[in-house]
Each structure stands twice: as structure tokens, then as C-alpha cells.
Amino acid sequence: QRTTLISFKQHPERGDSVWAFDGRTGWIKTPRGLLSDYELIGEELDGARLEAQMAFPGQIKQALNNWRVGLRRAIEGKDYLIVQGSRPRGLLATWYFDSDTGLLRRMVRYGPSPVGRVPTQIDYTDYRDVGGIKFPFEYQFSWLDGRYTAKIKDIRTYVQIDAARFGRPAAR
Predict the structure, then answer these.
(1) ∠ CA 32-42-52 to the nearest 5 degrees?
(2) What is the pTM of this model?
(3) DSSP class of residue 22?
């Protein structure tokens, strides 16, 4: 399960965006989008599932299959270890791990579409220690028609969360 709430503090008139995945179904609520909210299907749903699994990567081995190790690749002049896996319905993901720290720096997932594979790239930076676990406090998302950076202000572990927070976002 995973929910991302995006607030635009400098532009509160925009409202909040919510990306929610309850373990089976996912939704996106975007107040300024063509559709104010919609249920995820196909490649978007597979991507939401993978991102939820990666939030706590203890499940990384089960997240994909057909694992391969690739050649090192550079990001901003630094070499990273490459690991790639796939899912039966066509989702392919490539992970870039820092060889010094072992931390995930980038994930690029490719979902099938009628026009070929559609990439979504997530860069993970600003890792900080939270209760003995390193979490990225900045995510940079890039996809075919958009890009945004999310800066996390607080991460807490072992906190009770109402299950409704992972369900369909409430309409406004």
C-alpha cells in the first residue's frame, strides 16, 4: 500500500493531488487535470504496485522476475550498478544502485502500450536516516508528458495509518 499526497504550498488554490494504491487498486486525483480523478489500469496500475513495493524494498526479490545484471552506467559522472527485472504482463524495470552505499539512485520502469514501451523515471536523492533506515527525502519523477519533484518533509516509522488513506481519494 502507498499513498502520496502532494500539496502546493506556494499555490494553495491548486488543491492537493493524491496518488493512492491499496494493494490491488489505485487512483489518482488531480484537481487541475482533464479528469479530476481516475482509477489506474494497465501499465499505470503495475507501476503503482511496483512503487509501493519499492517504498520498503524488503520485497525487491519478489517484485519482479527474470533478473539480469547489466553493465555499470553513469549518472552525473558517477558509475552505478544496474539490475533489471520484468513482470509477466510486460512491465520492465531497471534499477541503478550506488556502488559505494548500496542505495537506490534511479528506477526506470517501462510499461507496455500500443505504441511501444512507455518510460517513467524516478530519481531518489537526499537520503537520511530514520530510525536506522535510510530513506530518500527527494523524488524526481519524469514521464512522457510531465515532470515534478517531491520533497518529503517528514517520514515516521511504526505509525498507525487509517486504511481509508490508501483507498479512493475523496472528491472535492
Answers:
(1) 75
(2) 0.83
(3) -
